[in-house]
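Run log // design_07
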């Protein structure tokens, strides 16, 4: 039995929901396979003792009890991660926004400077961290040699617990080109008629920025903050590479004797500790509990953040 194209078209029009589901099937399959299933699997394994070798053994809330009361490093790691969320994210966003403002105002060689500020964002994370550890080497690094030549004793940078996170902050500022280019596009997209109307009303430069520019780029700011917070909560590669390279270790994972968190656990992030417990110590059940807690905290953090942003949008203020 054959079905004509016309008949098939009529059937599709009569059942648009099925047609939409068919078109969304690949995306929905990917969502179920790579998000929903891992999420529920992590929740299940968080209530078990599991080492990838023996079958999971149900132990109730023991993993969570150990997490909140007995783990010696989880709160150190959480504190370091919170530092990156509270300090690194705002500094990167403000720096990128400031550079974008300057590039919008630039009259000459603006294309050259856009390239200069964006190129570091193309550098692979590992290569960028290794280069920074070399540049900020306390004994032979060019940065301290330059400081010494002008009579300043440079700090130990990645080898000092007090300077290790600020050193990574400098790295984060250097690679802010990805956010900068998005802000630049948003600023260039602000209608010039709004600035002209503000000028006719006697608005000064700072008033144009506050009442015209800022409300116009609020969606982009929200996007930058949300993605920045998510990335900071998952901060792993830069901190892990900086720790292992600065300590002279070649591998990551506490079980292999590497220097994750060096110096003095100052660069031990939450995801690093999750990696250590799960893939270096093979405590997959406990690592799942850490992952579930991270998911819950991230969800709460982002919901509160979006509510606060919505409360300060011009529409809500009116």
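design_07 sequence
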């Amino acid at each position: 039995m054959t079905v004509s194209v016309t008949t098939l078209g009529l059937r599709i029009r009569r059942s648009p929901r099925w047609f939409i589901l068919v078109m969304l099937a690949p995306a929905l399959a990917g969502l179920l396979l790579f998000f929903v299933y891992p999420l529920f699997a992590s929740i299940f394994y968080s209530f078990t003792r599991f080492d990838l070798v023996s079958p999971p053994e149900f132990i109730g809330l023991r993993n969570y009890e150990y997490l909140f009361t007995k783990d010696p490093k989880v709160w150190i790691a959480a504190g370091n991660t919170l530092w990156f969320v509270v300090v690194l994210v705002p500094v990167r966003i403000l720096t990128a926004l400031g550079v974008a403002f300057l590039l919008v105002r630039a009259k000459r060689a603006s294309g050259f400077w856009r390239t200069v500020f964006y190129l570091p964002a193309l550098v692979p994370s590992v290569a960028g961290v290794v280069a920074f550890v070399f540049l900020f080497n306390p004994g032979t690094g060019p940065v301290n040699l330059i400081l010494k030549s002008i009579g300043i004793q440079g700090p130990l940078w990645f080898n000092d617990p007090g300077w290790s996170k600020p050193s990574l902050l400098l790295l984060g500022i250097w690679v802010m080109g990805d956010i900068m280019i998005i802000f630049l596009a948003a600023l260039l997209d602000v209608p010039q008629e709004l600035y002209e109307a503000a000028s006719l009303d006697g608005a000064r430069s700072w008033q144009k920025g506050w009442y015209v520019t800022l409300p116009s780029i609020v969606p982009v700011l929200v996007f930058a903050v949300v993605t920045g917070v998510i990335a900071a909560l998952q901060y792993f590669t830069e901190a892990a590479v900086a720790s292992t390279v600065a300590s002279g270790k070649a591998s990551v994972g506490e079980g292999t004797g590497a220097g994750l968190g060096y110096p003095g656990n100052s660069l031990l992030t939450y995801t690093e500790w999750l990696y250590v417990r799960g893939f270096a110590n093979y405590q997959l059940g406990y690592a799942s509990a850490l992952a579930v807690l991270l998911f819950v905290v991230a969800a709460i953090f982002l919901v509160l953040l979006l509510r606060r942003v919505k409360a300060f949008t011009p529409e809500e203020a009116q």
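The longest strand covers residues 48-49.
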